[in-house]
Write a structure and sequence with these properties.
alpha+beta; two-stranded antiparallel ribbon
């Protein structure tokens, strides 16, 4: 059995003794830490980091467990972890700001914004023979309604396909976000990695976050682990991909979520655009992407999607917005409620981390609105 020790590098100065939850109740930090340690040990989680925001500010950050179990190196709050699809939410924020300033027209077909036809775009030549591709807009790509599966390698033939009329259904797609990255790069004349650094990472002081692997951060980088505890390493991604190439830390992601909550990162118009519901979601599950079994289970919380963010539009706590991130050996989740100023970020370097997300969010903030089954969490 994996024994979890509470290992932490630095705790924010003046960390509170208690945290306020969504229902107005409080919980002590000691209770939080004991509960997380117990949950991790029971589920065999290698490492997990948490950040809790109060009044929109980062109030509490802590890391538990290990970043390298063979060497018994502790997971720390500035340990570099794989951000996975949290990248999408940050990229969407950049695009929303560009749109409000006239830098990109979200309603214009993206084929009109590209300098070459589909047939001359190496990763998107499969769209050349489908007339529906000419209807795809940047808004559809941000809201995952363009018609793609998640990733082409999951298709039986490994090719990119449109599965429905663009704009009519929700189907989560990393390929769609990568197509949008290409469009944004052509419109702005800048690589996506540079845009993310200039618009988000540098302004927020996210010094340990990058869209590609940075060798200078290798001395404090986590290894991912599968469900049996087998090490999967840390992929050193060389290409910036808006769908999910970002390396980051719990502290840096918390900085981003705080800025988003307080409106310090983007304009009020951009934030409103990002968090405006664009499509209601009435399916039982988000994955597999093309699983369209109808369901009313999440109607009570008003499950919808905005520009790169999942939305909970009808909750007792006001509108909530969330983004998950997952890959083999990694699990991440960010959730915020502006009305109460409460937010949480969870990051784990273990496939088992997602087994405890629900219990932790219930305990720490009394979250009873996240659509767990739809998101694929136990």
């Amino acid at each position: 059995m994996l024994v979890i020790a509470m290992l932490v590098s630095r705790v924010a100065a003046a960390a509170p003794d208690k945290l306020v939850r969504l229902d107005g109740s409080t919980i002590t930090v000691a209770e939080v830490e004991k509960f997380i340690a117990q949950q991790m040990q029971a589920a065999h989680v290698a490492g997990l980091a948490i950040a809790v925001l109060q009044r929109g500010e980062v109030a509490y950050v802590k890391a538990f467990g290990e970043r390298d179990t063979a060497k018994h190196l502790p997971l720390e709050v500035d340990t570099v972890m794989y951000g996975a699809s949290l990248t999408k939410a940050m990229f969407a924020t950049v695009v929303a700001e560009l749109a409000t300033r006239g830098g990109i027209d979200l309603e214009r077909p993206v084929v009109e914004l590209l300098k070459k036809p589909w047939s001359q775009l190496p990763r998107f030549t499969d769209l050349a023979g489908d007339p529906r591709a000419s209807k795809i807009t940047a808004r559809m790509l941000l809201t995952h309604t363009a018609g793609f599966a998640n990733l082409r390698y999951l298709e039986p033939d490994g090719r990119l396909h449109l599965h429905f009329e663009p704009g009519t259904k929700y189907a989560y797609s990393g390929d769609g976000i990568n197509l949008l990255q290409l469009v944004v790069e052509e419109v702005t004349g800048k690589p996506g990695g540079d845009l993310m650094r200039e618009r988000i990472f540098e302004p927020l002081g996210m010094t340990r976050t990058s869209m590609t692997w940075q060798p200078q951060l290798a001395d404090n980088t986590a290894i991912g682990y599968d469900k049996s505890g087998r090490p999967l390493g840390h992929v050193q991604r060389q290409l910036a991909r808006a769908a999910g190439s970002m390396d980051t830390t719990i502290v840096d992601v918390a900085r981003f979520l705080s800025a988003m909550m307080r409106g310090k990162l983007v304009s009020e118009d951009a934030k409103r655009a990002a968090l405006t519901p664009r499509i209601e979601i009435h399916t039982a599950r988000q994955f597999p992407t093309l699983e369209m079994t109808p369901s009313k289970d999440n109607d009570r919380v008003g499950l919808a999607y905005g520009l790169g963010w999942g939305l909970l539009t009808r909750t007792p706590y006001g509108v909530g917005y969330f983004k998950e991130g997952h890959d083999d050996g990694w699990g991440n989740y960010a959730l915020a409620f502006d009305k109460h100023g409460i937010g949480v970020v969870l990051m784990s370097n273990s496939d088992n981390g997602e087994l405890v997300f629900r219990a932790i969010l219930d305990k720490v903030i009394k979250d009873d609105v996240t659509p767990w089954a739809w998101e694929g969490y136990p």
